[in-house]
């Protein structure tokens, strides 16, 4: 692969991840309007996170089989977004979110595995890829916050449809529906067995479950928390943008610090600092101070996902990379559903103030899981 081709592929897949970030950054500011429109409470609206998760898991299971049969660009989210744009009955809205999650799962796994397999500058490339994800997640709340204040709030998903159309066109033009991994693959049955034998894959899966769960819980519930607990107005939706903006910057500006301290040790440092900041959000009743702290938490958590992808790429055989990343990736949305749903269920009973202690507990669990990740044995054979 020439340097020019590498840059073209990286740019295309970065936009692909930006659409995933756009999707993840959309929902938080719209939650109160969705509750109002469908006349539902915290627990029922949290089902949105669950159905998206189930779709992503379905995509992960099908990814191992389909990664050689579906090229980039065959799984658009266009139909899902256009369905959501008309504000259909709530069960239909949930069904559309399921298919959207399935499509995103296949594209996410393909993008990560492709970039991880590029021999040059893999750490920088992975950092850029996930920083652009953060750009999408940063931009989305600015738009969805505006639509949340309009009568036709669901028209936000027409913007998402346009973003998705561009993504599919780019993937189709650049990759021409080529398979995501050109290397010779074992049969699907053997591939499943080989992936499931990798202990490092399972440990990393649970780490990603907690990490993505924390990330989506903050992005999804911080607006509601600030409105209910800090007296914030509609503009508090921009705090979600600040969080994802911090996430984006962290994946770029912290690269030298990551290399200086070491990728395995730096996760401990960032986790401890993020926990300290969450304590300030919990105990300091200041809207502006809380908004700044949330942005800094995003900055610190930003490098975790690309670091995790680089670490797992160094632990497993390259022929298993696409399927393994798809499997690991499925646990991310599991956390993205489980933690926000837990937050919604607990908020229904105790109030949305449960957000901060839950986040702190999950960040502590992250540290424990990362300890086991760093002790995993290398099983590369190529």
Automatic annotation (TrEMBL):
It is a multi-pass membrane protein. The keyword Ligase does not apply. It comes from Tulasnella calospora MUT 4182. It is found in: Endomembrane system. The keyword Membrane applies. This is Major facilitator superfamily (MFS) profile domain-containing protein. Belongs to the major facilitator superfamily. It comes from the Eukaryota. The chain crosses the membrane at residues 40-66, 78-103, 124-143, 155-175, 203-223, 235-254, 266-285, 291-313, 320-342, 354-373. Keywords: Membrane, Transmembrane, Transmembrane helix, Transport. Gene3D superfamilies: MFS general substrate transporter like domains. GO terms for molecular function: transmembrane transporter activity. GO terms for cellular component: endomembrane system; membrane. Residues 201-382 form the Major facilitator superfamily (MFS) profile domain.
């Amino acid at each position: 692969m020439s340097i020019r081709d590498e840059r073209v592929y990286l740019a295309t897949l970065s936009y692909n991840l930006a659409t995933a970030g756009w999707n993840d950054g959309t929902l938080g500011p719209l939650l109160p309007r969705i509750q109002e429109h469908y006349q539902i409470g915290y627990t029922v609206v949290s089902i949105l996170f669950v159905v998206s998760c189930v779709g992503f898991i379905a995509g992960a299971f099908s990814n191992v089989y389909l990664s050689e049969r579906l090229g980039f660009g065959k799984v658009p989210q266009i139909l899902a977004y256009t369905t959501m744009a008309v504000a259909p009955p709530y069960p239909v809205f949930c069904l559309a979110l399921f298919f959207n999650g399935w499509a995103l799962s296949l594209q996410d796994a393909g993008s990560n595995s492709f970039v991880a397999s590029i021999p040059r500058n893999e750490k920088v490339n992975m950092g850029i890829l996930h920083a652009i994800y953060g750009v999408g997640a940063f931009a989305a709340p600015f738009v969805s916050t505006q639509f949340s204040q309009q009568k036709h709030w669901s028209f936000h998903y027409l913007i998402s449809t346009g973003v998705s159309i561009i993504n599919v066109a780019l993937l189709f033009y650049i990759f021409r529906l080529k398979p995501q991994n050109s290397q010779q693959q074992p049969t699907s049955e053997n591939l499943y067995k080989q992936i499931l034998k990798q202990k490092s894959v399972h440990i990393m899966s649970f780490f990603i479950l907690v990490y993505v769960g924390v990330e989506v819980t903050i992005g999804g519930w911080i607006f509601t928390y600030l409105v209910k607990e800090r007296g914030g107005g509609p503009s508090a939706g921009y705090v979600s943008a600040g969080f994802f903006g911090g996430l984006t910057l962290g994946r770029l500006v912290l690269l030298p610090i990551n290399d200086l301290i070491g990728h395995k040790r730096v996760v401990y440092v960032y986790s401890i600092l993020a926990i300290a900041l969450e304590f300030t959000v919990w105990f300091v009743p200041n809207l502006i101070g809380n908004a700044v702290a949330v942005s800094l938490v995003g900055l610190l958590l930003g490098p975790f996902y690309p670091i995790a992808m680089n670490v797992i790429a160094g632990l497993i055989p390259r022929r298993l990379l696409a399927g393994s990343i798809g499997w690991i990736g499925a646990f991310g949305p599991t956390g993205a559903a489980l933690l926000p749903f837990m937050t919604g269920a607990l908020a229904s009973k105790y109030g949305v103030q449960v957000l901060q202690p839950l986040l702190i507990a999950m960040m502590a669990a992250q540290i424990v899981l990362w300890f086991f990740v760093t002790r995993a044995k290398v099983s590369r054979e190529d």
